[in-house]
Hints:
- This protein is mainly alpha-helical.
- It has helices at 8-18, 20-29, 39-54, 88-115, 117-130, 135-142, 186-189; strands spanning 74-75, 78-79.
Amino acid sequence: GDAISASRQKLESQISTLYGGRLAEEIIYGPEHVSTGASNDIKVATNLARNMVTQWGFSEKLGPLLYAEEEGEVFLGRSVAKAKHMSDETARIIDQEVKALIERNYNRARQLLTDNMDILHAMKDALMKYETIDAPQIDDLMARRDVRPPAGWEEPGASNNSGDNGSPKAPRPVDEPRTPNPGNTMSEQLGDK
């Protein structure tokens, strides 16, 4: 099952997913405004790609051999105290293979976000309105339908004649999204100055 093994396709999809937040920042705000928020995602994606190459045999150039050590600080494919059984050339190929895996899936994630900007913006709008998104709302977003309120949502200011029945209440809305002006950045549209 999934807990025991994962396919190359699933692992590569995980790498693409890990870069989604960083790429959304880059696409919306521009490369000069990318934050450090994705640092852990980058670490996880790099470790996953390195394991694919050095432990799980997902490199055509290197084949199904174990190149990893159990412990030690690693920079891409190369241990700080490189194993004596690994040549500089092998370490260089590991670095190239890890980088190629990352770049392929980074570019794949960028293309998916670029092709689905309408969904990204609709998700932002739903989050601004409801503060949270549940599975049925994700289904609406992916089907490009109007996003329904989350389960238990009550419109702010809606009266409930029966008193407090314990059902979830709508959180206080964040400032309503402003009508975007074509020249404004996303940050300006959201009210960040």
